[in-house]
């Protein structure tokens, strides 16, 4: 459904009766925009700009009016929605004389087709990073598009200047692909270095990760790799993940002045969080110390691009009165909100100037050429649009004062309006917190692998090391051989324990049994999966009945006593295949609980706290974006690939109930390698004409059998 909103106009401005010419500003905003969360946040800025342009800028014969058209969820989900919606708008008879407000790079590129076809200017807020999405590097300028809030050119120029100033070329750049902004910014910077700083581009390494599911151990692995190739580590991720990186960096000794970390916080925005060492947890003090190694880049708040206070007050007041949107008491409208106001005011000024010069103000290409390189004073201070079609922005580089617990500006990167010149101003005399304020070198004295020290006639370093180490190794080999043999013997005994899988009932301490409830039917491997726990304990209610304690840890039990199975040589041989089935995407099999009568009572496995994939997809209230869905798909692929290349061979019952989610949102495949705990009737592929009664039973009575057969036919080794 296309949502179009046309604000009310003054009836006295009716073009039919007054002879006035109306120019229509088509204002748009994505429904899933991370730059501007709702139209109500910017609506007052749009209204104020129209009112000021009509009252103080345009001739009386020209009036501006607005049409709001939703771009739909085109930032991350349905990128073609913006073109569909605007096609409907134009076909309804609306003539857009300018486009204002589209923000995400992906939807901005899609929207540009209309701007090019109609030859009207597009004022993006911000539309930063669109060049990274161009499939053809020769067509990455989008000449009719203006990035009014900010672009990435000044960011790339500032970072490149910093690297050159301190002779840095060995850079590790970590890119969080869970956040579109960080992913796109990282790709843009890499492309900028390729074109403008080849030395950095050749030596830099870009590594992608998913921040939402990044554990501390995985963070340590990333940092260990970076320490062996780089002295500068750039973190493109959410503020909380930045803090996690810094805490782990301190734990492994990277925050004592030898490594430089850089993060981005262009302006205050909930989407990327606020970089702060305080989270009211045990890591606060470590984070406070570690943040001394973290430099933060942000848009500068200077006289050349700051917000006029009176204008800010007016926007906040109108937002509350007309749109019931309340800014915080000390909050300023951010650069994207102001971009809407500035876009309309720039357009009005150019229309007026072009009329005065006898030019065709409906010629978008001509108007944009006039805007490029022009400094506008009196809109929101001083602003100018550079030759790259982006707003010239000053940036601040901030360093952390551990004593005060706050960031302060250390270096300013100042752009000169209408030129390509950038001035670097060092504000603080002491930039770095160690080594008398001097920045660390780009490489260690003898290289990252300690193999680049000059040879002064002595034995090479490697030879010296060999002379010392080899005798020590020879002396210790015999001493360690006995220890190694003992460990090997112990492992062999453990490996060949024929009863490793057997768990006596006395060793299991039952914590909760849902099967005792009168309104809940007992689940077993014939109906559901082999892991989880009840909702009343904070775990999934869908995947298991019983929560127990075993060897001081929680385990999930699935009751299989109804099948009346006793261990036999064939079963034990299949269980032995599970002994070495260890993979991050497989639920860990622990053993079989044996009743006093010798029957198989329970399947014992690790807890998967978030339930099954069906729970997440059907019953969860969380929003699942495609980054998260792709992560789940990858987990299934990795788990199944391990099964197919292992002696187990195949799963035989892969479905939404046997795909479980642990507390870290990692998908783990369960119910593998246990065919003897399944009803053989449900392992036969179902055909509609075989048994009509069974189809009802399968579809409604046994969820696992229904999904299992439909998926089993598609499993290939």
Automatic annotation (TrEMBL):
Q: Can you say where in the cell this protein is located?
A: Membrane
Recorded GO CC terms: plasma membrane
For this protein, the record's InterPro entries field holds: ANF_lig-bd_rcpt (IPR001828), ANPR/GUC (IPR001170), Cyclic_nucleotide_synthase (IPR050401), Kinase-like_dom_sf (IPR011009), Peripla_BP_I (IPR028082), Prot_kinase_dom (IPR000719), Ser-Thr/Tyr_kinase_cat_dom (IPR001245)
Q: What's an example of a GO molecular-function annotation for this chain?
A: ATP binding
**What Pfam families does the annotation carry?**
ANF_receptor, PK_Tyr_Ser-Thr
Q: Where is the Protein kinase domain?
A: 520-717
**CDD domains under this entry?**
PBP1_NPR_GC-like (cd06352)
Reactions mediated catalytically: GTP = 3',5'-cyclic GMP + diphosphate
Q: Which domain of life is it from?
A: Eukaryota
Q: What is its EC number?
A: 4.6.1.2
Enzyme class, one word?
lyase
The record gives the membrane topology as:
Single-pass type I membrane protein
Q: Which residues cross the membrane?
A: 465-487
Q: Which GO terms describe its biological process?
A: receptor guanylyl cyclase signaling pathway
Q: What keyword terms does UniProt attach to this protein?
A: cGMP biosynthesis, Glycoprotein, GTP-binding, Lyase, Membrane, Nucleotide-binding, Receptor, Signal, Transmembrane, Transmembrane helix
Instruction: Note the PROSITE patterns from the entry.
Output: PROTEIN_KINASE_DOM
Matches recorded under SUPFAM superfamilies:
Periplasmic binding protein-like I (SSF53822), Protein kinase-like (PK-like) (SSF56112)
- This protein is called guanylate cyclase
Native organism:
Hypsibius exemplaris (Freshwater tardigrade)
């Amino acid at each position: 459904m296309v949502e179009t909103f046309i604000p009310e106009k003054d009836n006295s401005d009716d073009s039919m009766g007054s002879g006035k010419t109306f120019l229509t500003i088509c204002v748009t905003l994505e429904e899933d925009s991370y730059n501007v969360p709702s139209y109500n946040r910017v609506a007052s800025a749009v209204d104020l700009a129209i009112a000021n342009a009509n009252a103080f800028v345009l001739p009386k014969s020209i009036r501006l009016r607005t049409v709001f058209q939703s771009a739909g969820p085109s930032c991350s989900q349905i990128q073609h929605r913006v073109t569909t919606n605007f096609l409907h708008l134009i076909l309804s008879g609306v003539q857009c004389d300018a486009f204002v407000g589209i923000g995400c790079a992906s939807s901005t590129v899609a929207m540009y087709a209309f701007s090019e076809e109609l030859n009207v200017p597009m004022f993006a807020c911000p539309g930063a990073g669109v060049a990274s999405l161009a499939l053809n590097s020769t067509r990455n300028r989008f000449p009719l598009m203006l990035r009014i809030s900010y672009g990435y050119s000044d960011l790339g120029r500032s970072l490149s200047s910093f690297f050159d100033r301190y002779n840095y070329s060995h850079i590790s750049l970590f890119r969080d692909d869970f956040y579109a902004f960080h992913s796109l910014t990282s790709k843009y910077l890499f492309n900028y270095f390729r074109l403008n700083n080849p030395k950095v581009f050749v030596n830099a390494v870009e590594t992608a990760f998913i921040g939402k599911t990044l554990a501390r151990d995985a963070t340590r692995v990333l940092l260990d790799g970076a320490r062996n190739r780089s002295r500068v580590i750039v973190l493109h991720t959410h503020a909380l993940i930045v803090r996690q990186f810094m805490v782990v960096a301190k734990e492994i000794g990277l925050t004592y002045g030898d490594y430089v970390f850089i993060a981005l916080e262009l302006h205050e925005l909930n989407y990327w969080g606020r970089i702060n060492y305080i989270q009211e947890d045990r890591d606060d003090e470590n984070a406070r110390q570690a943040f001394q190694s973290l430099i933060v880049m942000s848009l500068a708040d200077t006289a050349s691009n700051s917000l006029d206070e009176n204008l800010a007050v007016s926007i906040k007041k109108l937002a509350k009165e007309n749109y019931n949107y309340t800014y915080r008491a000390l909050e300023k409208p951010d650069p994207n909100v102001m971009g809407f106001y500035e876009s309309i005011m720039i357009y009005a000024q150019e229309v007026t100037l072009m009329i005065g010069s006898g030019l065709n103000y409906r010629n978008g290409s001509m108007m944009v050429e006039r805007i490029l390189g022009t400094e506008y004073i009196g809109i929101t201070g001083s602003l100018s649009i550079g030759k790259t079609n982006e707003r010239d922005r000053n940036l601040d580089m901030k360093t952390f004062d551990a004593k005060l617990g706050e960031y302060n500006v250390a270096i300013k990167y100042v752009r000169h309006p209408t030129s390509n010149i950038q001035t670097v101003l060092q504000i603080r005399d002491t930039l770095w917190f160690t080594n008398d304020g001097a920045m660390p070198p780009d490489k260690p004295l003898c290289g990252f692998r300690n193999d680049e020290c000059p040879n002064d006639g002595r034995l090479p370093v490697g030879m010296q090391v060999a002379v010392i180490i080899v005798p020590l190794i020879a002396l210790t080999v015999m001493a360690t051989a006995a220890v190694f043999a003992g460990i090997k013997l112990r492992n062999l005994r453990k490996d060949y324990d024929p009863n490793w899988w057997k768990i006596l009932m006395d060793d299991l301490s039952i914590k909760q049994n849902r099967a005792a409830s009168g309104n809940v039917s007992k689940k077993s491997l014939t109906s559901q999966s082999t892991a989880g726990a009840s909702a009343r304990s904070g775990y999934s209610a869908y995947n298991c009945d019983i929560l127990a304690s075993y060897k001081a840890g929680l385990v999930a039990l699935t009751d299989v006593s109804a099948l009346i199975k006793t261990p036999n040589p064939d079963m034990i041989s299949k269980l032995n295949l599970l002994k070495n089935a260890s993979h991050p995407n497989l639920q860990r099999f622990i053993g079989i609980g044996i009743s006093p009568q010798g029957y198989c009572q329970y399947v014992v496995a690790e807890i998967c706290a978030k339930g099954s994939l069906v729970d997440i997809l059907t019953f969860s209230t969380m929003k699942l974006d495609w980054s998260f869905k792709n992560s789940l798909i990858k987990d299934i692929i990795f788990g199944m690939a391990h099964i197919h290349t292992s002696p187990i061979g195949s799963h035989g019952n892969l479905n939404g109930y046997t795909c479980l989610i642990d507390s870290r949102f990692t998908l783990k495949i369960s119910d593998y390698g246990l065919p003897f705990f399944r009803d053989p009737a449900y392992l036969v592929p179902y055909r509609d004409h075989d048994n009509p009664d069974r189809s009802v039973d399968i579809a409604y009575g046994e969820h696992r059998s229904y999904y299992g057969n439909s998926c089993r036919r598609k499993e290939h080794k």
